[in-house]
Design brief:
The chain is mostly helical. Helix content is about 75%, strand content about 0%.
Length: about 120
Amino acid sequence: MAAQETGAASVAALAEANAPVFETLVQMTLDTFERSGLDQQTYLLARIAALVAMDASAPSYLLNLGTAAEAGVPLEKIQGTLVAIAPVVGSARVVSAARAIGEAFELELPGDEER
């Protein structure tokens, strides 16, 4: 899973500062993919869905969406995943995810001009 390793490289760079927590996160991510038995796109889409369910922060989306982009996951599949999970996690979580994704990629979002 070369793209996963590339995406994890940004987290690995943090681990170089002798941060065992980050080293552990990188290793967990790599081990989990191999053990999941999923293809790369399905694995990354599942991770994105889990981030939405957990109301993750912008940096989590940045890392995982960056890895998905590197792996060639089409934007339409990511959008489709958000649509598919909305009835389960609720619209508030999906809207929160959309805002966090926008913040992660420094996109101008509706309502930002009022801030």
